[in-house]
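User: Predict the complex.
Assistant: Input components as received:
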Amino acid sequence: MITEALVLSAMIFVLGTFGVLVRRNAIIMFLCIELQLNAVNLAFIAFSRLMGIDGQVFVFFVMTVAAAEAAVGLAIIISVFRHYETVNVDNFKLLRW
Amino acid sequence: MIEVLFYVFAAVALGGALGVVWAKSPVGSLLYMVATLASLACIFVLLEAHFLAAIQVIVYAGAIMVLFLFVIMLLNLGHDYQRDLKGGAFSLLSFVIIGLMAGVLVRQFGENAITEPTAGGRAIDAALAQHGAVGAIAQPLYTTYVVPFEITGVLLLVAIVGALVLAKKGGR
């Protein structure tokens, strides 16, 4: 079951990466980043079956960082929305090359 | 039995992940995400990470997803049904590259199949039997990893202050 969990984790991570690359809605891009973080959590837990409980402690930290990231990221989205009236990242061109 | 359950939850998780990427509206995407998180929590239980499964449901599906939903409603994006997928060569190229990446990973994991019971698995089962589901993870968290744990607290404080400053109306 560890091998299958690692394969599932790789698949979910790849789907999350694909979502970040192709979606243009900032909120959905954030959701896809959360998807990637969850895939990593699954990999950590699968590896903790090999290496001991330390992997689970790391998942705890990853979840905390994900919560902090979601709070700050959504605050950024809100302030960007106030300025541009949209969350489509194609419209944010100020810092674009 | 456990294997069958694992495959069922894995299928739901993968379907939910696909839904997150393909759903038209942000709310639909979010609901698919909740399905993925719930089935991942079930997989955590199957992998003997009971405390983390509970945290996954309470913190992720409960708090973070509600925060996302709250922002979607606040910005009134609930009926934003336009396709926002980036089309054309870029999308195709990223799909091919990512597919290759997944193929390499799956092959790598598939070749070296791991047989249970493993050393780490036995250690975790012993810790679970001795300290219980919460104690097993609290033991290393408050001894070996106490400094990262405190730093995490500071990180959360910084995130709270940062989110307040960023989302404040007017500002500066």
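Chain B has a mean pLDDT of 84.
Let me know if you want any component modeled separately.
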